Amino acid sequence: MSDIRNRLWIANQWVDAQTGATFATVNPATGEEITRVAEARSEDVDLAVQAARAAMEDTAWRRMNPHKRSRLLWKLADAIEANADELAALETADNGKPYFESRKVDLPSIVENFRYFAGMADKVEGSTIPVAGAFLNYTLREPVGVVGIITPWNFPLSLAAWKVAPALATGNAVVLKPAEQTPLTALRLGELAAEVGFPAGVLNVVTGFGPTAGSALVKHPGVDAIAFTGSTDVGRIVMREAAETLKKVSLELGGKSPNIVFADADLKAAVRGATTGIFYGKGEVCAAGSRVLVERSVYDAFVEQFAARAESMTIGDPMESTTRLGAIVSEEQVERILGYVEAGKAEGARLVTGGERATVNGKGNFVKATVFADVAPEMKIAREEIFGPVAAVLPFEDEEDAVRTANLTIYGLASGIWTRDVAKAHRVAEAIHAGTVWVNTYNQYDSASPFGGYKLSGFGRDLGWEAALEKYTQVKSVWVALER
Fold it and tell me: Over the stretch 142-166, which tens digit does the pLDDT of each residue have?
């Protein structure tokens, strides 16, 4: 990885931060520095926003036929696909996730995402409205303008794609600030966009820290909308800082998602689904099924089988094909996870397996797959988002108890239901306060299906028509008098 792009990407050019400041991005599996990345501050963000505004005013982008925009997005999808091995290796080195997840799951979905929104670019329509009087009234859907996108470190390129693709499809210009822990694939995405023909300033990438670069982007008067994915605490800050300029804001925030297993479920499938729900992505997943609710009559059997599967989650070099549990993104996050493990034990939950740090060849930020049983709803590990491979298993008595316990949270991002009873599945799906409900499956996503939260999990949706139209366009009503 000697040829790593590590400067700011502004107006289709590599640019040093104006202060010359840099910071290290580190491989969490080894603790070794990958490269140093330019540290953007407010003056650099201002340059990127100026480039994006210039792109919005330039007829090359503003007047581009939507069919051509569609072709550019399709070309970008092709370029991502052609460079998938490189992008997956960068993602794994930067984030610590297993290479098979980056290459076999993330990258194909990213390509599909750009192709889906490429197909949408030439299908954004207005309408004609039969108003009273001698008037022709019609609506136009127009780009919001300059969109500031701030993405987290758990799925760096995937979540950038979820926002960048629909924003570009609808004719906006973008300033993307990736998480400081995982900036490398975002920078490569900016370069690939230029290579396939996107005009200068349409996609800019500024690397830096939230309180400086992120805050400058949110506050900038030249930014028309902010699309943010991250923690609920930071989401509150984004809302406050965007209020001064009344930006359009969408927030996809934290979660403490219930994964509900009824006694009539296929228990083996439910155990597999619960394993995927909490241990995929090292548990660093906003929609992770971190609260596993199990009906009392199958509780003991479930816990035994679930713990056995947790113990089979292989920790190892993320580049090895046999590795199923990669490295936690940072030392800070490891300490946070282990702090919750100690809290669970102190409050009386039963640690069934895991709860320990691990290393590979004496290095790395690894935490064993962890299962707590006999968890009560009021315990810290049942209430707060841990963002790591820690499952809290809670018993319930019946359907009413399951729904009550599932909704006993400030969050509402996702949920799972495991049952053979179709009527029960629909009743519970309707009763759960969450933006996504999976039935007899977990962690399924598609570019066509909207994703987002209720309650403190935020508002607005990624993916689907909802993302493109609600977040990245605005409606103009045009009245034409037909009589003098």
Answer: 999 999 999 999 999 999 999 999 9
Give the largest CA-CA distance in the chain: 84
DSSP code, position 214: I
- The whole domain housing 218 covers 8-253+457-479
Strand, helix or coil for residue 246:
coil
pLDDT in tens, 91-111: 999 999 999 999 999 999 999
What residues contact 47, with CB distance under 8 A and at least 6 apart? 10, 15, 18
Active site residues: 252, 286
Tell whether 406 and 335 lie within a shared domain: yes
**Domain of residue 269, CATH code:** 3.40.309.10
Query: Would you say residue 452 lies in a domain?
Result: no
Q: Are residues 342 and 314 in the same domain?
A: yes
**pLDDT tens digits, 254-279:** 999 999 999 999 999 999 999 999 99
Instruction: Kindly give, in sequence order, each residue whose CB lies less than 8 Å from that of residue 98, ignoring residues fewer than 6 positions away.
Output: 92, 318, 320, 323, 324, 325, 326
- Are 281 and 387 in contact by the 8 Å Cβ rule? The answer is no
Q: How far apart are CA 324 and CA 312, in angstroms?
A: 9
Quote the pTM value. Answer: 0.96
Is residue 129, in this structure, part of any structural domain at all? Answer: yes
Local structure of 436: helix, strand or coil: strand
Burial 3-14 (b: 16+ CB within 10 A, else e): ebbbbbbbbbee
The Cα 143–Cα 140 span in angstroms is 10
Look up residue 282 and give its two tokens. Answer: 């090292």
3-state helix, strand, coil in the chain (%, to 5): 40, 25, 35
**219 & 359 share domain:** no
Considering the domain architecture, whether residues 318 and 336 belong to the same structural domain is answered as: yes
Rounded-to-integer distance, Cα 469 and Cα 124, Å: 8
The answer on 406 and 320 residing in a single domain is yes
Q: What is the CATH number of the domain that holds 127?
A: 3.40.605.10
How large is the C-alpha radius of gyration of the chain? 23
> What is the Cα–Cα distance from 6 to 22, expressed in whole angstroms?
9
**The total number of structural domains that make up the chain:** 2
Contact 370, 355 (CB under 8 A): yes
Same domain, 462 and 354: no
The closest of 155, 445, 378, 102 to 283, measured between CA atoms, is: 155
pLDDT at 437 over 90: yes
At 219, list the tokens: 């506050």
How crowded is residue 386: how many other Cβ atoms within 10 Å of its Cβ?
25
Average confidence score pLDDT of the chain: 97
| Torsion angle (degrees, nearest 10) of CA 449, 64, 250, 186 | 80
Half-sphere exposure in the Cβ direction for 249 (13 Å, CA): 20
